[in-house]
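Q: My labmate handed me this sequence with no annotations at all. I'd like to see what the chain might look like in three dimensions before we decide whether it's worth expressing. Could you predict it?
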Amino acid sequence: MSNPYLLLTPGPLSTTSTVKEAMLKDWCTWDHDYKTIVQQIRLQLLEVGRASKEHYTALFMQGSGTFGIESTIGSVIPNDGKLLILRNGAYGKRIEEIAKVLQISYVSLIFDTNTQVDPQAVERTLVEDTSITHVAMVHCETTTGILNPLEAVIDVIKRNNRIAIIDAMSSFGGIPIEVEQLQIDFIISSANKCIQGVPGFSFILCQRNELKKCKGRARSLSLDLYDQWDTMEQDEGKWRFTSPTHVVYAFAQALKELAEEGGVEARHARYCRNQQMVVEGLVQAGFTTYLAREFHSPIITTFLYPVHFPFSFDHFYHDLKSAGYVIYPGKLTDANVFRIGNIGDVHAEDMKKLSEQILRYVGEMKDEN
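A: Here is what I predict for the chain of 369 residues:
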C-alpha cells in the first residue's frame, strides 16, 4: 500500500517501502539472531559518526528522541555537577525542562531564535563560571532549522575541559559529524530522523571513559544510560527491558540503504539539493525565509506567512495535503511561520512538484482576492 502523501517534516518522515517491509517479521528479544543485529547496528552507528570502537560505544534507549536526551542528561551529570545549556529554540528549552524536573543544577545561555550559538559567549561563560561541568547544545535546532556551529562550540568546550553533550536529533546521519575528531563525549539522535528508520528508539554514541563514570548516577531506573550499556555489553546485544524489535530491524534496513546511497556525504548532498529547491520555489512564489541564508540547515526551513495575499495556514496545509504533501506548522511565539522539511525518502522531483503546487496555490489565492 502506497502512502497518500509525503511527510515533509523533521521526523517521523517518509520511509522506503523496503524499510516498511522489514517490519513484517517478528523477533524474539532474547534470540541470538536478533541480538546479533543489535550488535551490528551499534558498530555501524560508530562508523556513521566516524568514531572508533576503542574509544566510543553506541547504545539504544527505548522511546522517542527526548527519552534519549533525558536518559543522557539524567545519567551523565553527577549530583555535584552543573549543566550549561546553549539555547536558541524549543529543543534547547526542552533540555532546560529535563534538568529542572531532574533537579540538576543548570544555567542557560540564551540566544535569539534567528541567531546561532556564539562560541565566544560560550567561552566567556565557561571562564567566568568554573562550577559548570557539562555543556549541552542542539546541533540543528528544528524550531527554525538553524544549524549551530558545532565545531567551533566543541572546540571551546574541550579547550575549557568540560564534557560535551550534543543533541544531534535532526542532523546525525544527514550531516557529516566527526564525533571522535571533535571529541564529543555524548551525542544523541533517533531512529526516525536522517537515517530514515521509523519511530521507536533513540541512540547515543558515548565516549567510553566518560560513560564508565556514570555508573550509579542515573536518576531513573528505565532511563539509566550506564546500565543499558552494561547489559548490552555483558549480554551481547540484549536490551534491559523489552525492545522495539520491529523498529530495530527496520533500522538495520535503513542503515543498509544509507550505505547504498553513498553514506552520509551523499545523503547530505541530496538533502541540500532538496532544501535549495524548496527555498527557490517558495521565494519565487513570494514567500520569505525566517532565517538568513547562511544559517540554513539542509534539514528543515522556516518560512514567514506571506503578506501579498490573505493567508490561512490551515487552508494552505489542507491544500498541500490533498495534493500529497504534509508540512509542519511553526513553533515560534514571536512570528507567524510554517516549516518544510527536506529529509526522508524525498527527492528533487518531489520538491519540484511541491514548488509547482505552491505556485499554483498562490496564483489561485491572488485571483480570488
